[in-house]
Amino acid sequence: MIFTAEADPMQLRDDHLLVRLHAPADLERAVELFHERAEVKRLILVADEVDGFWQQFSDRFVPVLAAGGAVSDDRGRLLVIHRLGVWDLPKGKVDAGESVEAAAVREVREECGLSEVHLEEFLCDTWHTYVRKGLHHLKRTRWYRMQAPGDQVLIPQTDEDITDVRWADKDLLRKVRANTYGSLLPVFSAWEAEGPRSRT
């Protein structure tokens, strides 16, 4: 779901439902339509008062804070994981008492089997929703640019349903982008905008 301050009332474009919000009831109806219509993959909500609608929207969910990494090696490749049939980036929940940065590094190490990972800078936040045990969750993931030597042995964390870990060169990265979650595309874009690109 995307909140913005520009666009028309309600429109269905391909797999995107765009809804102009004027009143709280508009938000409720938009969320209902999003859940009712299987062809809708993305909900774009347009409002003049984004903060008020965002608060109303987020109050509907159990909040979850997570952290992850867009990890480059010395050849400019991006570390990717394959989980549940989809390409993904290493990430996970922040533990109680743990800093977000420490959680990001820990999750990269655990999910990919790396021993050496260096945190560089904050990249961006992403948000996505999911249902677990009948409860609707809203997960905010804080993403960080990281660096790691590319000669380390990669070991997928199979108890987290990860079946593959790879350094993605530009050819694999095209395939990854075609079979990943839409919420990760801004992370790829942020990583590419300022980071080293694969030379292979």
Map the helices and strands.
Blueprint (H helix, E strand, L loop, with lengths): L1 E3 L6 E3 L2 E5 L3 H13 L5 E5 L3 H9 L3 E11 L5 E6 L2 E3 L2 E3 L6 H13 L5 E15 L2 E13 L14 E7 L1 H9 L6 H10 L6
Parallel strand pairs: 1-4, 3-4, 5-10
Antiparallel strand pairs: 2-3, 5-8, 6-7, 6-11, 9-10
Keywords:
200 residues; alpha/beta; 2 domains; Nucleoside Triphosphate Pyrophosphohydrolase
* Structural class by SSE content: alpha/beta
Mean pLDDT: 88
The gross shape turns out to be globular
Low-confidence stretches: none
CATH class term of the largest domain: Alpha Beta
The N- and C-terminal alpha carbons lie at a distance of 34 Å
Largest sheet: 4 strands, mixed
Strand order, main sheet: write it out.
Answer: 1-4-3-2
Under CATH, the homologous superfamily of the largest domain reads Nucleoside Triphosphate Pyrophosphohydrolase
- The CATH level-2 architecture of the largest domain is identified as Alpha-Beta Complex
Helix content: 25-40%
Helix and strand element order? EEEHEHEEEEHEEEHH
Oligomer: single chain
Individual helix count: 5
Number of strands: 11
* Number of discrete domains: 2
